[in-house]
Every structure is written in C-alpha cells, then in structure tokens.
Amino acid sequence: MDASTSQGVLAPTVKLLIGGKLVESKTTQWHEVINPATQQVLARVPESTPEEIAAAVASAKEAFKTWRKTSLMARGRIFLKYQELIRAHMKELAAILTAEQGKTLPDAEGDVFRGLEIVEHAASIGTLQLGEVGNNIATGVDTFTMLQPLGVCAGITPFNFPAMIPLWMFPMAIACGNTFVLKPSQQDPMVTMRLCELAIEAGVPAGVLNVVHGTADAVNAICDHPDIKAISFVGSTKVGTHVYHRASLAGKRVQCMMGAKNHAIVMPDANKEQALNALIGASFGAAGQRCMAISVMVLVGDAQKWIPDIVAKAKDLKVNVGTADGTDLGPLITCAARDRVEGLIEQGVKEGAKLELDGRNPTVKGYEKGNFVGPTIFSGVKPGMTIYDQEVFGPVLCIVQADNLDEAIEFINANPNGNGTAIFTRSGAAARQFKEDVDVGQVGVNLPVPVPVSLFSFTGSRGSKLGDLGPYGKQVVLFYTQTKTVTERWFDEAEHHAMNTTISLK
C-alpha cells in the first residue's frame, strides 16, 4: 500500500542502489518510514522484487572481476576519503537518523561515530590483509599464504543502529576486495542510504556496493542466491537463527550477532555514584533499544540497599523527542514496539516482580502520538518471569539479588545469552575472578557497555552469536577472505641446466 502524508501527497521513495546508480523500484509493495515521535510518514521504502535483487547481485558479481584486482593501497585511499566525507556530514546524518529512528541527537552522532571508526580501520587494509611467509621450509622451498577476497558478500542490518552496523559491514568487506549487497532495515533506511551515497562519492566503483530493501522475502533471497558467498547479520535471535541455518545450508559463510540479556554485577565495595550513573545510562540510553544494553543488575550483599538510589536516578531522566536539548530517552521505534514493551511490563507485574518505577504513558508535551516509554525498574526478578527470559528491547531494568560473587557469576552463566556483561568493584581479586569465570563474550570492568574499538572484534558468544568470526577488527578480515597457501621452489640456472642435460642424455 502506498504511504502518504497528512495532506494526501505521496511521501518520497527510498531508492535502490544498483550498478552505482540510484534506481526507482518497480515494486507494488511499499513500507512506511515513520517518525516515531510524531507518526509523520517520512518516506516509502520498497519491497525489492526478485528481479531487482538478482540485478544487484549480478552487478556485484560483474564488479568483482575488476575490484578484486584493485591494489590494497588504492582501496585504502577510498576509505580515507570516505571517513572525511562522513565527518563533514555528521550533523546531517545525525538529523536523518534521529528523525527516522527516534534516538537523541547526541546518541545519533555516537551511532555514526562508532561506524566511522570502522571506516578508519578499513583505510588501513594495506597492513591488515597480510599473509604469512616461511622461507626455506624445505631445501630451496618457500611457503606463503595470501588472503584473497571471496566474491559477492551481503549484509542484513537492524533498525537500532542504522549507521553504525552497516558501517561494521560493507567498508571492511569492500576493503578486503569483495563486492557487497546491503539490505538495511525497512524501518529506518534513509541514513543508511545517505551513507552509501557518500561511499559512492568517495570513489567506491559502480557495482562494488549495492543496496536492496525488503523484509522476509528479501532476506531469504539473499540466503539462497548462489552467487553470494558470505552473509553478515545483526538482529534478533529468531531471524538470526533462521539466516544462519538457511544460508549455511546454501554453502555460505555466515556470522550472526543476535539477541542478548546483559547482566551487570554491582559489588558492595563499588564506587556507588560512579557505578549507578554508568549503569543508569547503559540501561536506559537509546531507550534500551540496543543489544548491549544492561537490562539486568545483580546487586551483591549490601549493594541490595541501593535500590532507592537507582530508582531516584532513573526518575531524573528526561523523556522527550530526540531533537530536544537535554533529552535522555527518545521514543521506541514503532507503536508495536511500545505496545510490546508495555505488555511485558504488565506481565512482569502479574508474575510477581515488584514494579519499583513504572515508565508507561509518560507525558511528552506536543508529542502525544509518540511511542514513548519512560524508565521502568523491577526488583525481585527471577528466571521464569517473562521480563527476565525475554529480551525486552526497551527501557526496562530488572534487578536481582545475590549473596556473593560466586552466586552472581553462576546466575549470569545460567542465562543462555552471552553478548556482554560487567562488574563494578574496587577489588582486583573480584574483577579477576569475574573475568576468568564468567561465560560471556564481552566483559567490562567498571564500565557497563564493553563494545571493543575497531582494532578488536565484537565477540558475543553462546546464544548471542552464530558463526566463529566476529564483525570488524582482525576477525572480520579472516571472515571476508579465503586463505590460499602457495608452496614454491625455484632453481638457479646451474641446477636448471644440469637437470635439462640429464633429461636429454636419457
């Protein structure tokens, strides 16, 4: 169905990017891109046709023939230019992101900046894509490896970080010599498209980067296409599991970063003010719509007395439209997301958790139609309660209690997810035990969101990840390349002449 503005005028369409050109889709199916604070229809995004997806892949396959031969240094220079363009357009990109996704302008700039760090890393591809050499492995024999690109790769990205996560994917894939087909979230694709336009302006050749749009059919087409060699996915556990199994059965490399339930332990010796301030930001920032949000706080021993202080700090957070100064929480992405979070809050009450702070139905003057939910806190939460077992993906914090560190670590390890975790303590011994014993991929000590910088790789584990290698950093160079081993021997002229003489005498 076509989307329209309140005046009955069709909203602008989001284009496809195929063969270096922005292309109007011929689809008859459209999705609305809606401002979550106002319900204004910002744009229409197409459900790409099978023919359009095939054309994008064909364009990438053709471009790979020449792009794979492009020198490492030439590739790196494109990303030097690209990071310059992103910096120059930072305010514009943040404004687009806030309008379609809802997060605050500072959060939006942070979203872009964390992706920018990966672009900067991609510019160093000349040193990242180096093989190994063994001289004289046998007499006169050398062996070396080459990291060669795979071919056409694809990325499927979520709504919550529409700048950062696409920038996790296509810059490193392209820098490694691959070509790319990107499918951004249909809920907020505009900032992603602007980033792709800037990539073309920076010098990414026609066909090297392509963009299609859509939902389940587009995802399945990417999983099934025989010319796509690798897929990177970030999103929900349900969809990620589907993508991993379907694409793996089709013979592709797959990495899927999925859902989470991130715990933070607060020891009684922690710096109270610093710990609570950090954890409040990590729990409610981006309205809780991030896979690295701290959604469970484990209070150990006397730290259990800090619940009133936690509630007081959460009450001070400002819920408003993302463009307003001083806003701490913007709206959730859709009306359906708000309804789901409110339903989970109601379920938490029914299942016996204590509602310490109810964030439902906050008053946001002038934005009464917005998808707002304020900070919400439950105490007395236990496994088996829906608000603990499910990823809420909203501003809801669950508080549980533990008598000691051993009990707290055991509690975290019993959860099936392994994306991120943290401990707040002044004890080096406690921190060391936590780092060693906790079964989670990314660990923070006195910081709540331990997402590594671009030099390292995102390392979620267990139920939060499928696939061996993580996005960006050193691991993703291995993901986006095939190792070829060459063993060679060269004869000097005397040996060559002697061999030929022996052969001729025979």
Automatic annotation (TrEMBL):
Signal peptide: none annotated. It is an enzyme of class 1 (oxidoreductase). PROSITE patterns: ALDEHYDE_DEHYDR_CYS (PS00070). Keywords: NAD, Oxidoreductase. One of its GO terms (molecular function) is methylmalonate-semialdehyde dehydrogenase (acylating, NAD) activity. InterPro entries: Ald_DH/histidinol_DH, Ald_DH_C, Ald_DH_CS_CYS, Ald_DH_N, Aldehyde_DH_dom, MeMal-semiAld_DH. GO terms for biological process: L-valine catabolic process; thymine catabolic process. Its EC number is 1.2.1.27. Residues 24-486 form the Aldehyde dehydrogenase domain. Gene3D superfamilies: Aldehyde Dehydrogenase, Chain A, domain 1, Aldehyde Dehydrogenase, Chain A, domain 2. NCBIfam families: MMSDH. Belongs to the aldehyde dehydrogenase family. This is methylmalonate-semialdehyde dehydrogenase (CoA acylating). It comes from Comamonas flocculans.
